Amino acid sequence: MDSDVARLAAIYKLLAWVEKNRKPVIRAVAILAVAVLAIWFYVWSAGEKEISASEALTSLRPAATSSGAPGVIPADAYLKVAERYPKTDAAALALLQAAAAFFTEGNYAEAKTQFDRFLREHPQNPLRAQALLGTAASLGAQGKVSEATAAYDDLIKRHPTEPVVPRAKFALARLYEAQRRPDDAMKLYEELLRTEPNSSLGAEAEIRLQDLRRSVPVRAVQAPAIVPVPVLKTNQP
């Protein structure tokens, strides 16, 4: 009974306070309602934008070719999607595909530009390692061996668990071969044989490793120096 009386008293006090402060309360409620509506609209519009971006990306069709060969989607078509729907997952994927298209076309400098743009605009995207691999490959394709070597090495060390790392190791080993660093190359091929034993990449690594072992001269192993053991002389009776 006492608790019911106390509860009623509290309700009356609250109603009295609301009545006394009616205008501020109405204003606060109105502000809260506007804020909730704004948040809902933002979430809704973001969802609609994401849907539209995905539809635009999937609606791209390969360009027709005069020879009748299977066409490819030009890089510029992907870039249009990325520019029209910025900050969406579809835009990130479009940028990555544009970079890959430029690489396929042989425009390695522009491919690197778009891979770098992806990394800059979508730093937390789960496909980040793919873009890092693309950047390194673009540098290598341009003949920038030292820069490509550093890029592959950085990818391997910073993202050791990413699925693209085996490909990065194989590419780095090939660069080591070009730089006449057979020991470093063989080390990577041996790692690939351990981690990718039943894959095509592991098979290629085994072939390269065997070729290197045949071509690299066996180093002469210096025999350990024989240290004479001192003989203790004893007095014979």
Fold and architecture overview:
- Helix content is 71%, strand content 0%.
- It has a domain of 59 residues.
- By secondary structure, it is mostly helical.
- The N and C termini lie far apart (119 Å).
List key phrases describing it.
237 residues; disordered C terminus
Provide a quick synopsis of the model.
This protein is mostly helical and 237 residues long. Helices cover 71% and strands 0% of the residues. Helix 9 (182-195) runs antiparallel to helix 10 (200-215).
Major β-sheet profile: none
Helix/strand-derived class?
mainly alpha
How far is the N terminus from the C terminus? 119 Å
Helix content: over 70%
What's the overall average pLDDT, rounded? Answer: 77
Sequence stretches where pLDDT stays below 50 over 5 or more residues = 32-46, 219-237
Helices, by number, come to 10
Q: Could you tell me the number of beta strands?
A: 0
Overall radius of gyration: 33 Å
User: Tell me, what's the shape?
Assistant: elongated
Order of helices and strands: HHHHHHHHHH
Strand share of the residues? under 5%
What is the strand and helix layout of this fold?
Layout: H1 2-20, H2 22-58, H3 75-84, H4 89-105, H5 108-121, H6 128-141, H7 145-158, H8 165-178, H9 182-195, H10 200-215
Helix pairs in contact: 2-4, 3-4, 4-5, 4-6, 5-6, 6-7, 6-8, 7-8, 8-9, 9-10
